[in-house]
Amino acid sequence: MRSDCGQPAPAGSATTGFDDLPGVSAAVAASAAATAFAGVSTTAPTQRRRWLEAVAEALHSRAELLVALAEEETGLGEVRLRQELTDAAANARYYAAVGEGGGWLRAQAQRRTGGSAADLRKAHLSIGPVAVFGASNFPFKFGVFGHDTCAAVAAGCSVVVKAHPAHPRLSRAIAGTVTAALDAAGAPAGTFGLIEGFTEGLALVQLPEIAAVAFTGSQSGGMALVDAVRARPLPIPVFAEMGTVNPVVVTPGAAHSIEPIAAGFVESFTRGGGQFCTKPGLLLVPRGCGAAAAIAAALSSRDGVRLLTAGISDAFRAGVGDLVAAGAEVLATGGPADGEHVVRPVALSVSPDVLRQGSRLLQECFGPVGLVAEYGHFAEVGEILSRMQPALAGSVFSADGADPDVSSVVAQLAGRTGRVVVNDWPTGVACVDAMHHGGPWPATSRPDATSVGADALARFTRPVAFQNVPDEALPPALQDANPWRLVRYDQEGRPW
Amino acid sequence: MRSDCGQPAPAGSATTGFDDLPGVSAAVAASAAATAFAGVSTTAPTQRRRWLEAVAEALHSRAELLVALAEEETGLGEVRLRQELTDAAANARYYAAVGEGGGWLRAQAQRRTGGSAADLRKAHLSIGPVAVFGASNFPFKFGVFGHDTCAAVAAGCSVVVKAHPAHPRLSRAIAGTVTAALDAAGAPAGTFGLIEGFTEGLALVQLPEIAAVAFTGSQSGGMALVDAVRARPLPIPVFAEMGTVNPVVVTPGAAHSIEPIAAGFVESFTRGGGQFCTKPGLLLVPRGCGAAAAIAAALSSRDGVRLLTAGISDAFRAGVGDLVAAGAEVLATGGPADGEHVVRPVALSVSPDVLRQGSRLLQECFGPVGLVAEYGHFAEVGEILSRMQPALAGSVFSADGADPDVSSVVAQLAGRTGRVVVNDWPTGVACVDAMHHGGPWPATSRPDATSVGADALARFTRPVAFQNVPDEALPPALQDANPWRLVRYDQEGRPW
């Protein structure tokens, strides 16, 4: 951009087309989203793909400003944030393509086969305006225009996002970027809206226009929304993805290679300040394998970590205190902890006996803390896992080659988590079709739902069957002419 | 069967292998179901198909006794009950085949494509022991061995059924039949269990072994289970399918053929004593089309109807009284109402103005009552529909040929119901792949779920992703050798 006076052009100048967009009231945003919904849901998925791709483009074109704002408000570091913006734009393109593919509509027909049989067609239609509550820890990927927003628009829904208070300026800047790009791409006004503040957020989920809620964050935040929705005259689904203690088991056969595992554990529970919902929360190792010393050594070289907000760093210090009060002992710390919201990463050791009794030890502490427990007999692993709350993910580290203990741990984790990993850390979630980012409560409020991957669109749909409905009155997904060019089959498996 | 003394052999004789099976305690049944689950879920779907088919066979072989018991306890009539048993056995075979097909597992792979990419595989695994609460109105199809039980077993889950108090002897007889057939077919002990009584039912859904709840019945019953499950330390999904007022719209263009519509309306809201969750509850007709006289004429030839229980007939009389108190007027009645639990079918007329105000008018009254409202301007239809609670199903009757009003009503009904029907009644639900028997609350507690059709299995599954898990530790559905012979694809759409 040309700027004769040598100053960078202000954000929101006419030449960029971007204005930071402050939030409106919940009522105004929901009303606009409801008006937009008819247009969004009946627009061909191919066109909605273009809207999302336009936003991805716009995020890139405004990356300098957005990353700088994110760094100011989160302290997550420019390198990480630049990558996260790039990933978020790629995810938008991914959901756009999934939406265009149309598999999420699950269109099918039971075509008339005789005089008396009905013509029955079924599709998962767009559910309505969606309220999205993003997370603090991924301001781009799980923020104003993260997985939930993209999946909802791809599934034909309008969206109202509640800005996270940890990054209000970034939220406004992204909202402005999204709105301008959607407008320019021809999306209906109201396809996307932003609101701000706790009170407006609670008001939003009570409004009759809102048809579903998606949330990423803490258990207390998610359950507050679940409770708020229960008070509605007509309840709606709440898809809350919440924090859990993700267990990692080192089998006896893997004990000989504990050093790289210990280093990986420290790296994983401190990455992003330990502010990942998939960080390893509890490492179960064979007694006497040297894990404690290896973890202490790895942690000693770690610096203090700046957390997202003063509230989160306060909660972290209190949470570590609670863990110690519940019977955990400090194994090692990194440091120092100088500066605003900066804390020392810490590894805690805990005995299996204490774990079996102390429920506080088995609840998430957001931030750079990891628990380590040494088991004597391998059967203790099963007992401990059965005491833990279900989780988003869990891992097993095994011996090279065949390890007789892997299958039993995989089966146990499969019964209690949404994703089971072998010989790697659960930390981080790839945005691909076969991903499942979810799990039984308290990992999520809806154990069948994922907030990442192709199936993320399913949350924002509702199946409807059409019986003997004339073609012109059917939704496009079910019309004979197949105007959306979906891959569809009838009851005999014939393309239809 | 030979019986020297000329008496029919008692049910449960050694030669039949059937014993009536009284319920056990919730704790005993849940514990047995939990023990059985490991075996049920890892048994090949092909084998589970044989279990369900064996039960279907056993239902037929004991049909005389079961139908006689059902008639004694429900008064639904031998013809209807014999057909319902036949349908229930056919449904068991249907779910058995759907289970064997394996599409419900939704197995998919994101196979390793480079050095750093993960091998990610995902399937919907069997969720665990399922608690089933059957309905009073379909003692076979939605009873002890109805849609929910069959779908759960087909999806690899063990089941504990709570017997409906309206038909306790039939429930025990079916339970004995199911248990003997499953045993003989080699299913693990505990695959199926029966409990009895309100207290045991509430206890059942609180037990840690239970992983999901399926219910068919009233709003109050369904919501009581939803509330009971909320009190669990670890919540689980409750799939409650509840009663609704299903609207039927007659367009202005269809007014000239009101007589057959009126006759069909009366036939539909009195069928099975009006005890169908899909009965038409409200008929919206153009003013002055003669619907009132035609309905009165059709109803005058109807006899009194025996309802399922004294409680239901009392509730029906009270419900009709409430409707009249809320502003409805008696348009016509059938009769007489002599005999135990016998009531007069009744049509009530109500003005659109009263409908717009009276919420009581828009809640289900179980039994043979139908509301009729005459609209002046067609726009009133939209206003009334928007005031109603969402419903399981809705219909439109239209003019022959193109009718300009059909599309708008279909679109409105699609936004508020689970199934939209044109030129037929919503009453009755075919058990086919493309069926959706569900809808937004209060039709169901989970608007994405159906209790009939192939997707009914999805309720009893939970997705899990497996990342870099060695083949021998994967569940059969995801192993390279594909031991369950599922149709599976990888990320490129290649068979896998």
TrEMBL record, chains A, B:
Keywords for the protein's UniProt record, in alphabetical order: Oxidoreductase
Domain Aldehyde dehydrogenase: 27-439
Cited SUPFAM superfamilies: ALDH-like
UniProt cross-references to Pfam families, sorted A to Z: Aldedh (PF00171)
Family annotation (InterPro entries): Ald_DH/histidinol_DH, Ald_DH_C, Ald_DH_N, Aldehyde_DH_dom, Aldehyde_DH_Superfamily
Protein name per UniProt: Aldehyde dehydrogenase family protein
UniProt organism field: Dactylosporangium roseum
